[in-house]
Design a protein that fits this description.
The structure holds two protein chains of two kinds.
Chain A (H helix, E strand, L loop, with lengths): L6 H7 L1 H35 L1 H16 L2 H12 L3 H25 L3 H10 L3 H31 L12 H10 L2 H27 L2 H19 L13 E4 L1 H5 L1 H11 L4 E4 L2 H9 L5 E5 L3 H5 L2 E3 L12 E6 H6 L3 H6 L7 H13 L4 H11 L12 E6 L6 H15 L2 E6 L5 H9 L5 E5 H8 L4 H7 L3 H16 L1 E3 L9 E6 H6 L5 H8 L2
Chain B lengths: L1 E9 L5 E10 L4 E5 L6 H8 L7 E6 L2 E2 L5 H6 L1 E4 L11 H5 L1 H5 L4 H14 L4 H4 L9 H13 L5 E5 L7 H13 L7 E6 L2 H7 L2 E6 L2 E6 L1 H6 L4 H8 L2 H8 L18 E3 L5 H10 L2 E5 L2 E5 L1 H18 L3
The chains are: A alpha/beta, B alpha/beta.
The structure holds adenosine-5'-diphosphate (ADP) and magnesium ion.
Magnesium ion binds next to helix 1 of chain B.
Protein name (chain B): ATP-binding cassette domain-containing protein
Family (chain B): Belongs to the ABC transporter superfamily.
Keywords (chain B): ATP-binding, Nucleotide-binding, Transport
């Protein structure tokens, strides 16, 4: 697939998805508003009759309103998992206040003379409600529904974080990929929906008295119809359900490649990285796009499917060291290279699992591993010099930096200090070339795409071959930055498709090709 | 018959709004509750259709204690007219008038015929006004719709709370005059609340003057005027006394004191004509009257002398 040139190209290319997201978005918005009306209007009526309840009820719904939306969605996940259910509940809670409050004020605002006359003529409380209070409060109630709807169009974009779909998929995918077209393709329709619904409801509100009585009947029907949009996209289904991060969704070496290279088309939900693994474990999803050495792969007993057609770029880890340091201390490279070939994907996953999930001390985890690999030696406490080791804040780097420190101090007369927690790639690499650190562990894919920013044709021609990528970055780093790539450690921390171990073995799926075969039969 | 018996009512942190109130209204009679604002008139009225429950005392309609009946049933059989009409703003004139018959589940055509008849009687031509909303009507028209609505189910009892109070003086007089002529009202038992003395005397068969939740005096117009029970009643009526006296005395009431020769020329007035109208007539023309086969000539002096003589006698000997 070519990268679309203009915004309109993007929209044209993605029109199917855009329509689906828009319908889902509309559905999410109105299902939650409908539920809010079903519960909020009776609640408003109740508190207009039991004044004592008015304060507490309005207070509680008001507090719900002030919870930041992303936090509210977060609270929902442990209770309701992922997908539409928690999204709808969260949206419903947001819609509640305007509906309850306006029903209450609308009823309170009915002319007391009219109420007196109606009661005096012998209307029962029920007739009073249906014939007088609700019709006369209707414009105010409608204003509340209007507010709730507009709020929900906005908040519903966040539903994309918890696999409930909607225009947030494009918006957050666009942000993650720095793709403005994609971002706008989500943001513009969301804004238009808000304007459209606001306008439509304002029209309803301005109808004259006679018609206002009929809207009492028409409104639920309209809400119901719009709510049903949410169900439409669900009607087609594949045998397995996938959950991908917004970033993965838009990448050529991600979901797009799965379609073009493997011919794999899954019913896909977009979901935040933070909850994806757990959702797979809880059988809310069957296939997810993870990071192959993430500790959660082990924590949730997932298996990585083999990328047998090599669409994911290689991210092999290896230490990068300034040439000057290697020249000064020739014993350094052999010490570091001892780690090469000892850590494969599953070992790295295990180590990450112990640190991230079991919360064990990274130093201890590093030492335990070296001991079990027969590499650990007590520190010599030499005084020949100091090597400064850097690491990025997240992931494998932390553990690896500790291992390198132990290797250096055990096998040479050098000592080592670790400077972990150096932001992202850019920060740690700048520290290296500016002589603030001497080495750090890096990935070949990152070196290729982020640091060297290799031209597209080059990337395309070598990306399928991990050795070629390694050779390319080794040569480029040495020439441009006088930085040396030592031997790869062995594991490949790249994108990966993963499934629950139990399901994968039951369905005899071990590679992405197996998966494609299974899904399309 | 409506019977109010030793009824008291107080609101939160207040003295009694209504204090040990007792009166009876006979069928077909119009009782006017008259008093300054805040004296408990509305409170009294609202207790009769159970919009308020008395703290003490009982209210009977016929022989039935109203506590024993469901409030909805009770109210559907009592017409209720409010100062600010309380018309449903989302109902047309026709729909507003049809409310109570609908509650009583009359059949559709009967409701419609009844509503149209009432509109005709109250000078609201249906062709123009049936499908109009209350906001589009003048104050006087709205008040007539309010009256039609109260009369729609032909209830035997009508409660009216300052029904003309919100109208400008000219409209008030014309709506009041129509009201007096309305045949629908002939057989109704009416309790009408007002703070307007003139209105009370014009419309009431009997008048009940209230102050601070208590009845000061209840009786026919002449009793209140010529035999006031206390200073409050006397002072209350003082401002319009002359006009009220002239209007409430008929020629037959002062007949014995009319000192006119019987040389009848000019128009013969009925003995039921009140003194006010007689005086107005005399300004333009000569007039006489006959009563019990006796004919007397009238002029201003004769009339005023007779009235003074009547008052003197009545205040000395009580009402006859
Ligand atoms: N719902 C109420 N709550 C509290 N006080 C009331 C209420 N209704 C009337 N009152 C008080 O009772 C007294 C009598 O009021 P009301 O019967 O309305 O007087 P009127 O109709 O003669 O002007 C007034 O002092 C008024 O303030
Ligand atoms: Mg009043």
């Amino acid at each position: 697939m070519d990268t679309p040139e203009t915004f309109l190209d993007f929209v044209r290319q993605q029109s199917g998805k855009l329509l689906e997201q828009t319908l889902t978005h509309t559905g999410l918005t109105f299902i939650s508003v409908l539920i809010a009306v079903c519960i909020g209007v009776p609640a408003g009526i109740l508190i207009s009759r039991r004044q004592k309840l008015a304060g507490p009820v309005l207070g509680i719904t008001g507090i719900l309103q002030t919870i930041p939306s992303i936090a509210l969605l977060g609270f929902m996940i442990p209770l309701l998992g992922i997908g539409p259910k928690p999204a709808i509940v969260a949206l419903f809670l947001y819609a509640l206040l305007p509906v309850v409050r306006n029903t209450y004020t609308g009823i309170q605002g009915v002319d007391p003379n009219v109420m007196e006359a109606a009661t005096g003529m012998g209307l029962s409380p029920r007739q009073l409600l249906l014939k007088v209070q609700l019709p006369l409060a209707m414009p105010v109630i409608l204003a509340g529904i209007r507010t709730a709807t507009v709020i929900n169009v906005g908040v519903a974009t966040l539903a994309a974080y918890i696999a409930a779909g909607g225009l947030g998929e494009f918006i957050f995918g666009g942000i993650a990929l720095n793709n403005t077209h994609m971002m706008l393709a989500g943001a513009i329709p969301a804004a238009l929906l808000a304007i459209l619904f606001d306008w439509g409801l304002s029209r309803l509100q301005r109808l004259n008295m006679r018609k206002a009585r009929k809207t009492t009947l028409v409104l639920p029907a309209i809400l119901l119809l719009l709510s049903s949009f949410y169900l439409l996209p669900e009607t087609y289904n594949s045998r397995l359900k996938a959950g991908f991060t917004p970033e993965f969704m838009g990448r050529k070496d991600g979901a797009i490649g799965l379609g073009t290279v493997y011919g794999l088309h899954l019913r896909t939900l977009v979901i935040s990285d933070m909850i994806m693994y757990k959702a797979a474990y809880e059988k809310k999803l069957d296939v997810i796009s993870g990071s192959s050495t993430d500790g959660r792969v082990k924590a949730f007993d997932l298996v990585v499917l083999e990328d047998d057609k090599h669409i994911f770029p290689p991210y092999y880890a290896a230490p990068v060291v300034r040439q000057a340091v290697l020249d000064k201390y020739p014993e350094l490279a052999p010490a570091l290279d001892q780690l090469s070939g000892t850590i494969n994907d599953s070992i790295m996953t295990e180590l990450n699992y112990r640190v991230d999930y079991l919360k064990q001390n990274p130093q201890q985890v590093a030492k335990d591993f070296l001991v079990s690999a027969g590499l650990w030696k007590p520190a010599r406490n030499g005084t020949k010099g100091v090597i400064r080791i850097g690491a990025k804040i997240f992931g494998d780097g932390y553990i690896l930096a500790n291992m390198y420190k132990m290797l250096i101090e055990g096998y040479t007369d050098l000592t080592a200090t670790t400077k972990t927690g150096l932001g992202g790639t850019k920060i740690v690499f700048d520290a290296l070339v500016n002589d603030q650190i001497d080495m750090y562990p890096e990935y070949t894919g990152t070196g290729l795409l982020v640091i060297l920013q290799a031209p597209q044709q080059t990337v395309d021609s070598i990306i399928g071959d991990s050795q070629k990528v390694y050779d390319y970055v080794k040569e480029g780093f040495a020439r441009q930055y006088q930085v040396q790539w030592l031997k790869p450690i062995g594991f490949n921390n790249t994108y990966a498709l993963m499934m629950r171990r139990e399901q994968a073995s039951r369905l005899h799926i071990s590679s992405i090709s197996d998966l494609a075969t299974y899904v399309h039969h | 018959m409506i019977k109010v018996s030793h009824v008291s009512k107080s609101f939160r942190h207040g003295k009694n709004a209504v204090n040990d109130l007792s009166f009876e209204v006979q069928p077909g009679e119009t009782l006017v509750l008259l008093g300054t604002s805040g004296c408990g008139k509305t409170t009294t009225l609202r207790m009769i259709n159970r919009l308020l429950i008395p703290d003490q005392g009982d209210i009977f309609i016929g022989t039935k204690n109203i506590r024993t009946e469901s409030p909805e049933n009770l109210r559907r059989n009592i017409g209720y007219v409010l100062q600010n009409t309380g018309l449903f703003p989302h109902y047309t004139v026709l729909e507003n008038i049809s409310i109570v018959p609908q509650l009583l589940q009359w059949d559709k055509s009967r409701i419609r015929n009844r509503a149209l008849t009432l509109m005709e009687k109250l000078r609201l031509p249906p062709a123009t006004y049936a499908h109009v909303y209350p906001q589009q009507l003048s104050g006087g028209q709205q008040q007539r719709v309010g009256l039609a609505r109260a009369l729609a189910a032909d209830p035997p009892i009508l409660l009216m709370d300052e029904p003309f109070g919100a109208l400008d003086p000219l409209t008030r007089i014309s709506v009041r005059n129509e009201f007096k002529l309305l045949d629908e009202l002939n057989s109704k038992t009416i309790i009408l609340v007002t703070h307007d003395v003139e209105e009370a005397f014009e419309l009431g068969s009997r008048i009940c003057i209230m102050n601070e939740g208590r009845i000061q005096q209840m009786g026919a117009a002449t009793e209140l005027l010529f035999n006031p029970a206390n200073d409050f009643v006397r002072h209350f009526l003082d401002k319009q006394r002359l006009e009220l006296e002239l209007k409430s005395l008929r020629l037959r009431d002062i007949w014995p004191y009319l000192d006119g020769s019987n040389s009848g020329n000019g128009t013969l007035l009925s003995a039921d004509t009140n003194c006010w109208d007689t005086l107005e007539y005399l300004i333009q023309d000569k007039a006489g009257s006959t009563f019990r086969n006796e004919e007397k000539q009238l002029d201003g002096n004769i009339l005023m002398n007779a009235i003074n003589a009547y008052k003197k006698t009545v205040s000395q000997h009580g009402h006859t």
